[in-house]
Amino acid sequence: MKFLPFLISIFLVFSSCTKKKTPEEMLTDFVNYRFSSNQDRQTILEKTTGGLNVKIASMSDDEFAAFVDLKGFRKKKLKINLKKCTEKQCFITYTLGYDQKIRENEKKEPFSVEIKKIAELHLDSGIWKVNDVNNVKTYYNSQENIDVFCDGNSDECKN
Q1: Under a CB-based contact definition with an 8 Å cutoff, are residues 131 and 91 in contact?
Q2: Which residue intervals of the chain are DSSP H helices?
Q3: pTM
Q4: What is the model's pLDDT at position 157?
Q5: pLDDT recorded at residue 143
């Protein structure tokens, strides 16, 4: 009986440290991680499920490197606008604002981007994970002209 208070306190410590994230917390965590400089495939796969998880898992190393390369991007804000959830699925509309340099070594001021997105999260083994993200609307604001770069493959680029 002397150990009962000790066992209860250990249980409380461990149960409070393993608090499950809400869909909004998981989405915020995912977006913040995507803007970090040390992203790795395994961590992103742990935060995703469904089609997004399959798409990331099937990327070649070069495709994945391009996917996580966010040099020149600086997150400014993340605002949750609306959420519609059931017990196992959640749709969250949010606005993401960030600055983007036009080119990595260029001295021009970055331009601002604000994107409205809808994230679909699913409850997977008791943890909310991102299943899909769709862009709804994008707004660009720049003090200078924004050059559109062509990859050389589309008809619009072959002038």
Answers
A1: no
A2: 4-17, 23-34, 41-47, 50-57, 61-68
A3: 0.75
A4: 47
A5: 73
